[in-house]
Amino acid sequence: MRANVGRLVAAGVAIVIATAFVTATLLSTSLIERTAYNAILTAYPNADVIATQGILTPDVLEQVRATSGVAGADGRYRASVVLNAGGQSDYQMAAPTPQTSELRLQLADGTYPDGPGEIVISEPIAERLDARAGSTLDIEVDVWTSDDTWERQTETVTVSGIFPDPGAAFDADLPGVFAEQGDLNRWSGIPDDAEPTYHLLMAVAEPGTSAGELRRSLEPLLRENGSVVRTADEYAEAVTADFTADTYLLAAVLMGFGAVAMFAAGMVISNTFAVLVAQRTRQLALLRCVGATRKQVRRGVLAEAATLGIGASVLGIATGISLAQATLAILGRVFDVTWLPTGVPVPMFAAIIPLVVGTLVTILAALSPARAATQVAPLAALRPSVPPACRSRASARRMLVTAGLLLAGGALLAVGVVFTTYGGDVSAGLIVGMAGGAVSFLGVIVGAVVIIPPVVAAVGRVLARQGGVPARIAAVNAMRHPRRTASTAAALLIGVTLVAMMSVGAASAQATLDDELDERYAVDVSVGDEPFGVSEPGMAVPTPLQPQVVDAATTVAGISTAVPLHGAHAEVATPHATGLVVSVLGVDPGAARGVVRAEEELAALAPGTAVVPETLVSELGVEDGGTMTLAVNGRSAEFDVQVARFPEYAVIVTGDDLMSLAPDAELNRLWMALDPSADPETVIREIQNSISQVASTDTAVPVLGAAAERSEISRVLDTMLAVVTALLAVAVLIALIGVSNTLSLSVIERTRESATMRALGLTRRQLRSMLAIEGMIVAGVGALVGIALGAVYGWLGTLTTLGTVWDTTLTVPWPRLGVILLVAVLAGLVASVLPGRRAAKAAPVAALAAE
Prior knowledge:
This protein has 26 helices and 21 strands.
């Protein structure tokens, strides 16, 4: 190993990266759990015992307070309130201020309420409403009146204090407002002679009483009410377990990527040891001549592998821990919160598993080269070196196994797609499809020596015609060792396949969801009450849009088109239904088609025609091509019915038809289209803010649309794709190390050959070009095959996942796939730089004399 340390570096680096990846994955799960645990407890400061469920009344609370060992206890229940200030509003949950000081959150400013009419709010609310301690806010609540009805009332309250946002995103129990219990009872609609029911109780133990002892003291009392009693730690663990169910799934996915990284590292190690054994043929033969047995030779090779595996794995574990700690330190600076752990917890298994796995992968990768080493005959030391054969054929057994795996995997993939497309269980279809993908991909890996060499030969022939002598020699060299070339390209193929699969799958999912959103939400943004669809007579008339609301909405920057709609309630008479009332919207057909995304759904809108959404067909008892009669205040008209997949819960007619039917119909809805360059979330937020400043205080104007949802889905998919691509880049990096390692070893193996070509007139530049082209051929072929496989897997995955719900739109993100191919080819070029320099430095005469 000391003599060949330079040749083992690449293999060692591959296993370091892979074990660091696995270590970081294991630590991330533990870190997420600890972070969630700390974040949950911020909602219950200093609580020792938490009781949930059951019937928790003020009487039960008083009994808890009277229990021995209890220093203080409080209950928590909530009421919904709307806070208003300066034209801005915020919907929040309010809870009673704890009477026990230990159970109060620490305030960043001000004090807790001293009496009625005072509240404490969180910092995000204060920022949103531009409030501070001493500010006044209007609070809107639905109050239960003496007439047994709900009535919206507005009160003015004073902000007495502000508490910092604890960031308890893992537990939504922490309210944004604390108020006196009397105020909260009134806002909750609790009569004066009634008592609230708490959804949880918190208790603090007296000094000298542990949380466990307090829990045991309170259990007999609280369990009679059907409550679950836990210590604060136990409660946090329970909530964390619910939250981290997806985390374990994430960990499983990450470990899958870690397995891919380990597999790629194993291929690099196997290639390295195979070349080392081939280069040491004479040395091994001489050892056999002086008495070394086959077992000793095999043990020697495996001992080298074990030493390399242990050393590289230890270094990888240290690297993974350092990366996790560095990430935590960065997060601590970016997010100024108290619940982030100060250090990364390192459980024993997070160190043992990567060490064992890294060492085993290295040893397993060296088994085949070790077996080849034992087959070296002692007399081989006395024979002249024989150059390797230029071609070797794959065995018939390998070809049969490859064909069988590909056929079986393809059949399973087809079954998964058909199963889900025709209404089967999605989970079962996914399991079958994933099994098919794994089996077929295994077939590709097993048959790499069958699949990749022909592609390499085809690419080599093309380059040989254009690249001169270096390209022709590079093409021949790439085919001299089909097994090694296939193994090297296969390592890159793994990562590229997964990256391409995620890219194609995400693009297809995005296109499918865009089409679905176009049908589900007809326009980018709609302002006004949504139609109620079909109902019994007596339904309230939709709230008309005030002129200032229309002006405020349509003058926001980023709106390209705005179309007004008038609405009315009409009685329906159809061959199968009478006595019903339906919402009717009137719109100009030409203007509507310019703002509606699914234009074809309104193609039939014309005078005398009513477009009926599919969702209302059964309720109205109509059919496509039939007729229906609409009547408003004694006026009636018959319309031809055209059924459309339109997402409005209303019958749509032309504006002129509606006005002739209901002359008093008022404008109660706007359809708006956004500029393609506008940010949907920003525009919709500006519309909401602009409307809230001009609308009447007792009027809430809904602002809905597909633009924000489409933007959010795109962001989620892009983020997911970026994360997955970054994770898979580890496997690609390892594979590129393998390309560089293979080229480096082939340079050493072909020392005399390179010297002979130099002696025959090949320049140093041409020699470097030859190796560069060879590296690009290997990397490019691996990327091409990986992109092709990834596209197929991405399409089939989209069909399996979404086919049972929507009509899928399969697409290919050509620019992204082109970047993947370009990066792979450039990486192959970079990987050839050092081997090329090493080969070009050797003097022809010295190289010819080398053994």
